[in-house]
Design a protein that fits this description.
Elements: E1 4-8, H1 12-24, E2 28-32, H2 35-41, E3 49-52, H3 61-70, E4 79-83, H4 88-97, E5 101-104, H5 109-119
Parallel strand pairs: 1-2, 1-3, 3-4, 4-5
Keywords: Phosphoprotein
Pfam family, one: Response_reg
Protein name: Response regulator
Length: 120
């Protein structure tokens, strides 16, 4: 079943790889370049899942997550953090902010799609 997924990452190449993997699996993808852009995309349309980087300019992933969870329409939207951060403290901070899963870059597209299937 096709899902509508928001992908937030300041790296164009990462957005391209994630977007391609998701589109090839039949999903709709909306891209954002940082947390602020991601928040702007949360304009009422339904997202089944948000895939978000942690380290980004303007607004980082954890700040985005906290802000997104304040919006009633997205309070229960699952968020998968896709990041180079693998430290336990950062993972705990992400979980506390509302992240449902944590995927460390570089990642295999099958692992990403498996996570999407479980979360969305």
């Amino acid at each position: 079943m096709s899902k509508n997924i928001l992908v937030i990452d300041d790296s164009a190449s990462v957005r391209q790889v994630v977007g391609m993997a998701l589109r090839n699996a039949g999903h709709q993808v909306t891209e954002a370049v940082d947390g602020r852009d991601g928040l702007a995309k949360l304009d009422g349309q339904k997202f089944h899942l948000i895939v978000c980087d942690v380290n980004m300019p303007n607004m980082d992933g954890i700040s985005f997550l906290k802000a997104a969870k304040q919006k009633s329409a997205y309070k229960f939207t699952p968020v998968l953090m896709l990041t180079t951060e693998s430290g336990e403290n950062m993972k705990q901070e992400g979980k506390a902010a509302g992240a449902k899963a944590w995927l460390v870059k570089p990642f295999k597209p099958e692992v990403l799609l498996n996570a999407v299937t479980k979360l969305a």
